[in-house]
Design goal:
Elements (H helix, E strand, L loop, with lengths): L6 H6 L3 E5 L4 H13 L5 E6 L7 H9 L5 H6 L7 E5 L11 H10 L2 E4 L10 H20 L6 E5 L22 H10 L2 H12 L5 H14 L7 E6 L1 E3 L15 H10 L5 E3 L8 E3 H17 L9 E4 L9 H14 L12 E3 L2 H25 L6 H19 L8 H9 L2 H6 L10 H16 L7 H38 L2
Length: about 500
């Protein structure tokens, strides 16, 4: 039976796609989207390293069991056979490929999505350079050998040029050269490199944005001889519509804050609530990535500069962090999480002293108390370790939550403008949907419960009862603390006055 293909689907017909980082959050959604919506493609090749004793093939089988692949298994199960997996790693030369696997990749690939990266904002510089910078060079070196290459899409981040007041869709110059930093990381020992890292990073807040900026320069330098393209998503949030609403599989960014606050573990955060939130649903970002090679192929003339896409939400859809937080709290109370540490009503402030006092009182003291009780009971202690991770994460995130960010996203907007009705249905990036922001936040909260915490919707009645009990306990404790302090203060004043 002949199937009518939309223009974007027609472009992908008989194409072979090569993806690095397919096991990551965005990588999984990209793989699913290509298989589901670009079903006329020839093959998708992914590389994956063994992990925790599991071979790449086993990891792929487990990936296909995730809820996001359910619609493919129900509607187009034959597409799963079009996935070829090779053992590979961007930290190895030739991406860990050799022999027949390398030959198959270089002779057949038409489009490359280079998405592999370390997202650890607090990670050391050596690892960031090895994954994000050297890894990009290794991917480019393999792509140079591809005989039918039409597009090499490098996934960057919208925050890699954080010294700019307004971030346009272009590559910005930087005093440090990629080749110099790669050589530095090769010969300098980790201890010395860590010592000079703070001075090297300025004005960047972490090794992630720094290494991503250098990687952009490296990609740009290959534009003259290769069809390279740079895509910069902002903070990627759970899916709005597909493959399933609210899908997320990691605690990075706002999702981690939402879950941590919902569990009562995060009690204080530094956020300037006046600034606009910079998030993009993962399906909007992935749909943009899928359309980018198609648009590049339609150009009558090759652009003078490397194409750059800031994949960010439209300005009229952005809300202040304060509004988002209040909505999230209200919805979170309707869909609470089970067995929280405390009642979820943390403090949002811009005052660092206030925040630090809250952290000591409501993060560290409970952590030490709980671990002490676990020690007495002969159980494994974990709360101090958890709070260490939360502390580092919050410190890194405050650079992004205490500043205003301004992006120009004309190129990303043009992707939606060029699509016909069929492709708009297949690759949704509509910034004026019927669904409201509260509806999206509700799907995010429910997605966090279901996909991250593995809490079934059937557990909601129990979770709501637990929340009520936590509320009573919270108010009783606060009343006792305030009452005790008032009594102590009264006694002190009375003694001073001789009453």
């Amino acid at each position: 039976m002949t199937v009518d293909l939309s223009p974007v689907q027609e472009y992908y017909k008989d194409k072979t796609i090569f993806i690095t980082g397919a096991s990551g959050f965005m990588g999984k959604v990209l793989l699913e989207k290509l298989l589901y919506s670009c079903h006329s493609l020839k093959e998708v090749i992914i590389i994956c390293r063994p992990k925790r004793g599991k071979a790449p093939e086993t990891r792929l089988e487990e990936m296909f069991k995730l809820p996001i692949f359910q619609r493919i298994k129900e509607e187009r199960p034959e597409m799963l056979k079009k996935v070829t997996i090779y053992q590979g790693d961007v930290t190895f030369d030739q991406l860990g490929l050799s022999g027949e696997s390398l030959k198959h990749v270089t002779e057949n690939t038409n489009i490359v999505f280079h998405m592999a990266a370390t997202l650890k904002l607090e990670g050391n510089l050596r690892d960031a350079i090895d994954m994000n910078l050297l890894g990009t060079r290794r991917a480019l070196n393999v792509a140079k050998e591809m005989k039918q290459l039409e597009a090499f899409i490098h996934l960057s981040t919208a925050f890699c040029n954080c010294d700019q007041e307004v971030m346009y869709e272009k590559v910005y110059e930087f005093p440090h050269q990629p080749e110099d930093l790669m050589r530095l990381a090769e010969w300098m020992d980790v201890k010395t490199l860590d010592a000079i890292t703070p001075d090297l990073l300025k004005p960047h807040p972490n090794t992630y944005t720094y290494s991503k900026r250098l990687a952009e320069l490296l990609v740009r330098d290959h534009y003259e001889s290769m069809p390279v393209i740079i895509a910069r998503p902002s903070i990627v949030s759970p899916s709005a519509y597909e493959p399933v609403p609210g899908w997320v599989d990691n605690l990075n960014g706002p999702t981690g804050l939402m879950v941590g606050a919902g569990k009562g573990v995060i009690r204080s955060m530094l956020i300037d609530t006046r600034h606009l939130s910079e998030v993009i649903p993962v399906d909007y970002a992935i749909n943009g990535l899928c359309v980018i090679p198609y648009q590049f192929a339609q150009l009558a003339e090759r652009p003078a500069e490397v194409p750059v896409y800031n994949i960010t939400c439209a300005d009229h859809r952005k809300m202040q962090w304060g509004e988002v937080i209040e909505m999230s709290k209200e919805i979170g109370y309707r869909y609470p999480m089970e067995a929280g540490l405390w009642y979820p009503d943390g403090c949002i402030t811009t005052n660092k002293l206030h925040h630090n006092i809250n952290v000591v009182l409501f993060h560290w003291l409970p952590a030490y108390f709980i671990d002490f009780i676990l020690l007495l009971l002969g159980q494994k202690r974990f709360m101090i370790r958890v709070q260490n991770r939360i502390s580092v994460g919050l410190e890194v995130l405050q650079f992004f939550t205490m500043r205003a960010w301004f992006f120009k996203s004309d190129a990303y907007s043009s992707l939606w403008d060029m699509l016909n009705e069929a492709d708009r249905k297949n690759f949704n990036m509509d910034m004026d949907p019927e669904e409201t922001v509260p509806m999206y936040i509700e799907s995010c909260v429910q997605g966090g419960r279901q996909y991250l915490m593995k809490e079934s919707p059937d557990s909601l009645p129990r979770a709501r009862l637990q929340l009520k009990l936590m509320y009573i306990l919270d108010r009783v404790c606060k009343t006792l603390i305030v009452g005790s302090l008032s009594y102590w203060t009264y006694g002190l004043v009375a003694r001073l006055l001789g009453v």
